[in-house]
Amino acid sequence: MPAIAPGLHLIATPIGAARDITLRALDLLAGCDLLVAEDTRSLRRLMELHGVALNGRRVLPYHDHNGAQMRPKLLQALREGQSVLYASEAGTPLVSDPGFGLARAAIDAGLPVLAAPGASAVMAALCVAGLPSDRFCFLGFPPAQAGARKLMLAEAAAVPATLLFYESPKRIHRFLNELCDSLGADRQAALCRELTKLHEEVLRMPLGELALAIKDRSLKGEIVLVVDRAAPFRADEETLDAALDAALRDMSVKEAVAQVARDLGLPRRDVYQAALAKGTET
C-alpha cells in the first residue's frame, strides 16, 4: 500500500451497498494516522465489513454538535504532519454534511485538503432520474421555516437547470405540494428513494402526479427529488412581430435582431427571417 501523504483526506462512503466503497478509500482507511467520522459506529462497521483493522488507531466523532470543540484538535494533528481521514455517515463529504466546517478551517490554515471521490446520492439520483444532466443545481434540504422555503422556491423557479433537493420522508408530501404551486404541477420530476439499497425506488412523473401517487403512502429512507428545468419560452408570431416593430424604430436591423433574439430566447436566424419578411432592408 502506498504511503499516505499528510493532510486532511475526505473519503466518500457507500450510500447503501457496502461494496460501493472505492479501493483508494480502503487504502486511506487502512493507512491514515487518525480516523474521524460523522458517525463512528457506521465507520467501524464499514471497516469490519471490508476487513480493515484499526491497529490501535482512534476513531473520533465529528458532527454538528461537537465541531467547534473538535476542530482545534484536528487542525493541531494536521500541523504535526499527520494524515487525518474524515468520513461522512454516508456519501460524499461536505454535501449537506458537517465536514464542510472542518475542510474550510484546514484550508484557511493553509493545510492540505484532499478528496477521494466515490458514492454520492446527488449523482446517483441524477443518473437514474432520466432528466437533463448537462446543467444541474443542487439545493440541499429546503429550509424548515415556511417563509424561507417560499423564497428559496421562488429563486429555484428561475434557475435554468435541473434541480436536485434532499428531503425527509416526513416532509416530502408537503414539499411536493409547494413545488406544484411554485414550479407548476406539469414540471417533470423523479423521486429517488433508498438509492443502492434493497428497497430502492424511483418514481418518474410530473410533480402533480407524483404528489398524488404518494399521497396515502408513508415513505421511509433517504430521498433525493430531481425536478426538470422549466420549458423554454417560445414567443408566438404576434409577440415577435411587435418586438421587432418596437426595436426597429430606434435600431438598425442587425441591432434589432440581436436584441429581440436575446429578449425572446429565439435563434437569430429566425428573427432575421422575420425581419426580412417585414420588408426591412439590411
From TrEMBL:
It catalyses: cytidine(1402) in 16S rRNA + S-adenosyl-L-methionine = 2'-O-methylcytidine(1402) in 16S rRNA + S-adenosyl-L-homocysteine + H(+). It is found in: Cytoplasm. The keyword rRNA processing applies. It holds the Pfam family TP_methylase. Its main location: cytoplasm. Keywords: Cytoplasm, Methyltransferase, rRNA processing, S-adenosyl-L-methionine, Transferase. Residues 8-211 form the Tetrapyrrole methylase domain. It comes from the Bacteria. Residues 235-277 form the RsmI HTH domain. One of its GO terms (molecular function) is rRNA (cytosine-2'-O-)-methyltransferase activity. Its EC number is 2.1.1.198. GO terms for cellular component: cytoplasm. NCBIfam families: 16S rRNA (cytidine(1402)-2'-O)-methyltransferase. Belongs to the methyltransferase superfamily. RsmI family. Catalyzes the 2'-O-methylation of the ribose of cytidine 1402 (C1402) in 16S rRNA. This is Ribosomal RNA small subunit methyltransferase I. It comes from Roseibaca calidilacus.
